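Quick log. Single chain, no ligands specified.
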Amino acid sequence: MNISLKWIYIFVAVFCLQQQTAIGQSNAKEYWFFWTHTQKINERFGLLLDAQTRSQESLKELNTLLLRGAIAYNLKDKSSFALGYAYKSDFEQHEQTGYEHRIFQQYLRDFKIKKVEVNIRGRFEQRFLIESETKFSFRLRGFVSLQVPILANTDFSSGLFAGIQNELFCNILNKQDVNNHIFDQNRPYVSLGYRFNKKIETAFDYGLITTQDYDQKEVSSVFRLSLTSNF
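-> predicted structure:
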């Protein structure tokens, strides 16, 4: 439990730091839809699937499409290791401007602190970014989230909940081909959601996301609709 609490303290510190660095900066608005699905194969193996669409300023135009899948090996302590692949495509005025292939490995751990559900994930990505030429880099991502039941039944199998999460992205190899910085992105969110049952839940998320460019940091307000399924 001490190790778990340490992760939470780090998350809270990073979240607060993000809010401080974002104060006073103008930010664009983005609208995301995020669907994530877990499909059980047997007691040890499962499939992880997710899809994202992202639009900037207007819901009429798609700016980013992200598709991701992985096969996971489940351990007895509610943790898992996974190996997967992701495809990301970027658009501008309905024309594709670039795309990316990713191979990734991740570790995922779920546990509870009283009624609060905690999720910790570490992901290591090998990125093949393709525009006018192909660039290759390694990126490390650290993620933590908390879900707190508000108006829910005793075992939190259904009901209203609030959430808070953050994900920190760091370039660890060939950063000069991405933005020339170790820091890549920071994605803090707050959420309000509803769990229909143990298999399906949805949430409305608001995030204040910082992205590092070559010369400066860009801050975006992200309004995201999330759907999570687990069968």
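Helices lie at 2-22.
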